[in-house]
Amino acid sequence: MKKILLVAVALSLQSCLYDHTDNIEELGSNYYYMGDGRESQILLSRNKNRSGGQTVVPEEVTHYTFNSEYIIARNIQGRINKEIKFWIIDKRKGTQPVPLDSTEFYEEIQKLNFKLETRK
């Protein structure tokens, strides 16, 4: 009876494990989105198997879109003040982007001649 109980407990604990790497989307040029709720972020991997990488947009990424040249992301910084920042990543350069406020973001979008589409 003890063995059956031990096996049942072990199986129930195994089902509690959560593999956050199940929610990964390739963004091109070795960039990828790793969704994990409040820990969601965009990373740049130096190897093909995505075993880690450099954080490009820190958590919590709430929205993102991408094409062959750019990744555009929005995140919430800080758990208390929840400051919203925007990121424009030029995949061709591979440099670390800086967070932008909404005014800076829209100015950069206009300079790049982006057409942003809103979704309902």
From TrEMBL:
This is DUF3997 domain-containing protein. It comes from the Bacteria. It comes from Adhaeribacter soli. PROSITE patterns: PROKAR_LIPOPROTEIN.
